[in-house]
């Protein structure tokens, strides 16, 4: 038996409990992993609280990220004892995920844990840091360079936002952070933000075209914020859209696209091919200052996860939460 969080939905309602699970209950897969760390992402918060339709089959072990040691494998790429890393692939949604002491997975979803990171560091970065890196790469592919002007990061205090600021600042960009928590300005400046704006200035319905302010943006908020960000991007600039913390709708106009030639780059981390994952993790090894990790993340035990999830949904958690699944 091992410990894990199980989400159930039946006549008794929707609930998440920390419980004992037997190895026979694990889903099919060709690699069994002894999990050391997982994380709490926005999506895990939705799954744990039932606030959003994230979980597709029940019962479900949540946790879209995990790192651990291979215990059994019939995949030639992974040997017993290998340290492996998983982000996404629908794990924690349609296949049992990382918030348990064991997981059974498909080898094609895994990558070897990059040597640059300890297991806990890889989870401090997790899907949030890997997604922020994918977004930065997308901006670069569209020609962004530090001398082109300010880059906006929305949802600044969140996991994706925190890493986007830290990576862009390290690469030499002047970063403007948009947040609803101005009280966290000192934190955002420590990450490397040069300027901080109140997210209320972007969250209401706006005009199709506004003053050109930013060379590019990374948006984890969506809705009116994304529409206003597009309206304020400079000629031929790029917005990397990766989130929906404000809402899933995009109430925007084509005006910035056809009059200013801006690009909206969609960022998906879940089904990303392995080559892109390896590239993003290799870039994280060189372009992220690891001394930022204790500032951005904090560690909790598996037994604290269910109580913390509502705080994440309420936007009260700063940065990242790493979960030591063995305590
Ligand atoms: P977090 O919960 O850590 O951060 C979200 C941040 O968004 C909050 O900290 C807050 O920042 C801001 N925010 C919250 N509610 C609102 C609101 N109503 N209006 C405006 N801003 C708001 O989440 P993550 O950083 O982990 O993820 C961010 C988003 O990106 C989520 O929607 C998530 O689902 C998505 N995501 C997508 C991925 C992909 O593959 N495309 C991968 C990872 C995440 P502040 O307090 O500074 O305002």
Unreliable spans are none
CATH superfamily of the largest domain: Medium-chain alcohol dehydrogenases, catalytic domain
CATH topology of the largest domain: Quinone Oxidoreductase, Chain A, domain 1
Measured by DSSP, the beta-strand proportion falls in: 25-35%
Q: Averaging pLDDT over every residue, what do you get?
A: 97
Can you identify the CATH class of the largest domain? Alpha Beta
Question: Can you walk through the features of this model?
Answer:
This protein has 9 helices and 15 strands. It is an alpha/beta fold and 327 residues long. It has 2 domains: 2-113 and 291-324, Quinone Oxidoreductase, Chain A, domain 1; 128-266, NAD(P)-binding Rossmann-like Domain (Rossmann fold, 3-Layer(aba) Sandwich), CATH 3.40.50.720. Strands 3, 4, 5, 6, 7, 14 and 15 form a 7-stranded mixed β-sheet that branches. A 6-stranded parallel β-sheet has the order 10-9-8-11-12-13, with helices on both faces. A two-stranded antiparallel sheet has the order 1-2. The longest helix has 23 residues, at 119-141. The mean pLDDT is 97. The structure holds NADPH dihydro-nicotinamide-adenine-dinucleotide phosphate. NADPH dihydro-nicotinamide-adenine-dinucleotide phosphate binds next to helix 1, helix 2 and helix 3.
């Amino acid at each position: 038996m091992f410990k894990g969080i199980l989400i159930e939905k039946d006549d008794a309602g929707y609930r998440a409990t920390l419980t004992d699970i037997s190895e026979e209950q694990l889903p099919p897969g060709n690699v069994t992993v002894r999990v050391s760390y997982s994380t709490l992402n926005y999506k895990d918060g939705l799954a744990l609280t039932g606030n959003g339709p994230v979980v597709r089959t029940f019962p479900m072990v949540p946790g879209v990220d995990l790192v651990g040691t291979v215990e059994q494998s019939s995949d030639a790429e992974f040997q017993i004892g290998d340290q492996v890393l998983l982000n996404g692939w629908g794990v924690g949604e349609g296949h049992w995920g990382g918030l348990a002491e064991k997981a059974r997975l498909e080898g094609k979803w895994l990558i070897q844990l990059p040597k640059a990171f300890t297991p806990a560091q890889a989870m401090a970065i997790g899907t949030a840091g890997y997604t922020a890196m994918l977004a930065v790469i997308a901006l670069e592919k569209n020609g962004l360079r530090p001398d082109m002007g300010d880059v906006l990061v929305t949802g600044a205090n969140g996991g994706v936002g925190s890493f986007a600021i830290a990576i862009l600042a390290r690469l030499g960009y002047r970063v403007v952070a948009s947040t609803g928590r101005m009280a966290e300005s000192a934190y955002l400046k420590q990450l490397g933000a040069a300027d901080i704006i109140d997210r209320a200035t972007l969250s209401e319905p706006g005009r199709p075209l506004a003053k050109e302010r930013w060379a590019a943006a990374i948006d984890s908020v969506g809705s009116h914020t994304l529409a206003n960000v597009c309206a304020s991007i400079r000629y031929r600039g790029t917005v990397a859209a990766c989130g929906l913390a404000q809402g899933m709708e995009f109430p925007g106009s084509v005006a910035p696209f056809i009059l200013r030639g801006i690009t909206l780059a969609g960022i998906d981390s879940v089904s990303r091919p392995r080559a892109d994952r390896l590239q993003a993790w290799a870039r994280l090894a060189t372009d992220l200052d690891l001394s930022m990790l204790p500032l951005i993340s904090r560690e909790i035990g598996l037994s604290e996860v269910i109580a913390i999830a509502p705080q994440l949904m309420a936007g009260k958690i700063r940065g990242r939460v790493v979960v030591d699944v063995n305590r």
